[in-house]
Amino acid sequence: MPGPGFEFLGDEERRNIDQVLENWSLTRYLFDDPEEHSFVRRLERDVEDLFRSGPSIAVNSGTSALATVLAGLGIGPGDEVIVPGYTYVASIGSIGHFGATPVLAEVDRSLTLDPEDVERRITPRTRAVMAVHMLGAPCDMGRLREIADRHGILLIEDAAQACGGSYRGSRLGTIGDAGAYSFNPFKVITCGEGGMAVFRDRTAYARGFAYQDQGWPPLRDNNGAGTGEATFGLNLRMPELSAAVACAQLQRVDTVLAGTRGIRDRLVELIEPHEGMRQRDLNDAEGDCANVVVHTFDSADRAREVAAKLSTKPLVDSGRHYYGNMPQLSGNTSIRYAQGDLPRTDDLLSRSVAISVGVSDAHLGSGFGVGVRSTDEDVARAAEAFNSAVRSAVLA
Ligand SMILES: *Cc1c(COP(=O)(O)O)cnc(C)c1O
C-alpha cells in the first residue's frame, strides 16, 4: 500500500464524486458561483481554515505547486535557491525549470536541511531557501527563519511529504513565505494527482495564480475582464473530480496522522536499544507526521546488513531522492553535482535505515515496515524482525 491517506479513501470521497457527476461539473469555472459550489474552491478555503494559512491555490500536482510557488515569488534566471541534497527530484528540478540555480546543501541528523550549512552557502545571488520536510518530519524552521530574515532572503517550504504536520504548533507549509503540498498516492493524504500552493503575501499569490491559470487574476475576478499579471502562464488547474476526493481527504488529515503517530509510538516502544544505533533527531517530535521511523547506525556496513535482512535498502540507495542518484545533476552542464559533493549527507544516508509507518515506497527506502491500518500483531512482528536484524548485524 502506498501512503496512509490512501487507506482511508471511502464513503465521503465517493459522495463528493457523486455530487460532481450529478451535473458533470468537471471544472471550477463551469459554475456561476464557484465560491458556493466548486470543490476546488472549497479545498482552498478548507486548507486556509484548517492550516490557518494565507491565500492558497489548488493545482494538479505537488510539482505544479512548487512551480506555482517559485513563479509567485518571482524566482528566475540569476537567482540561487538553496535546497537539500536529500529530497525528491521535483524540489531541485522545479528550481532549474525557472532558470534559477539550485545550490545543494547538507542535511543534519534530522535528515532535513542543516541550517549551518545553509548559511555557509548564501551568496549575494541567493534569493531563497527551500526547506524540505523530508520523510514527514519538520525542518528546523526556527533557525532557518532566523537565517533567512537576517540575510533578507525568502523561505520556501516543500511540505509535499508532510501535509498536516507542524512545527511548534504551526502547520508545515504556512511558516515560510510560501509552501507546497502534494496529494499523490504516497503522501499523507491523496486524490491521485494534486497539490496546493500557499502564500503569505497577496502579490505573490496573485502572480502564482496567474502562472497556473494562463495569466488570470485570482479566482478570475474582474467579471472576466481580467487583466491580471502581464504573463501568459500555463494551465496547471486542479480538476473538480480530484478536488472532490481531496476535500474529503483533507477532513481526515488529523485522523490519518493520529493513526500513523499511534502506530509509530507502539513500534518505537518495541524496538530494543542498541549501542551504535539511534533514531534520527526530530526538530519537533510532536509535529512529525510519523510516516517512517529512521534509525542511524554507527557504520554503513551495519546499516547495509540490517537493511538487507529486511529486504530494504539504506537511504543512500533510495532512487530519485538522493542527489547522488540523480543522473539529471551530473548530465546538466549548468548544474553539476555528483556523489561526494555533500560528504555529511552521503555519510548519514549510508548509515540510515527507514521503517515504514504508513508510507511504503521502495524509491524512498521504506520498503519494510507497517501500514497505518496494521494490527498490534503486525507491529510486534515488524519490531521483532527489525530487532533480530539489528542483533545479528551487531554480533556479526
Ligand atoms: C512527492 C514530492 C514532490 C512532488 O509531488 P508530485 O505530486 O508527485 O508532483 C515534491 N517534493 C517532494 C519532497 C516530494 O516528496
Short précis:
The protein has 396 residues and is of the alpha/beta class. The chain has helices spanning 11-22, 34-37, 39-51, 62-72, 89-97, 115-120, 141-151, 202-212, 240-251, 253-270, 300-309, 327-331, 343-350, 376-395, and strands at 56-59, 80-84, 101-105, 126-132, 154-158, 166-167, 170-171, 178-182, 195-199, 277-279, 292-297, 352-357, 369-370.
Average pLDDT number:
94
The SSE string, one letter per element, is: HHHEHEHEHEHEEEEEHHHEEHHHEEH
The count of helical stretches stands at 14
What is the helix fraction of residues, given as a range? 25-40%
Total number of strands: 13
Percent range for β-strand residues: 5-15%
Shape: globular
Question: Main beta sheet: strand number and arrangement?
Answer: 7 strands, mixed
The unique ligands bound to this protein are: pyridoxal-5'-phosphate
Radius of gyration: 21 Å
Beginning-to-end CA distance, first to last residue:
33 Å
Helix/strand/pairing category: alpha/beta
List the uncertain runs.
none
- Provide the spatial order of strands within the biggest beta sheet: 1-9-8-5-4-2-3
Describe this structure in words.
- With 396 residues, the protein is α/β, with parallel strands linked by helices.
- Helices cover 38% and strands 14% of the residues.
- The strands form three sheets. The protein has a seven-stranded mixed beta sheet with strand order 1-9-8-5-4-2-3, with helices on both faces. A four-stranded mixed beta sheet has the order 10-11-12-13.
- Helix 1 packs antiparallel against helix 9 (240-251), helix 4 (62-72) packs across helix 8 (202-212) and helix 11 crosses helix 14.
- The protein is globular.
- It starts with 10 loop residues before the first helix and ends with a helix.
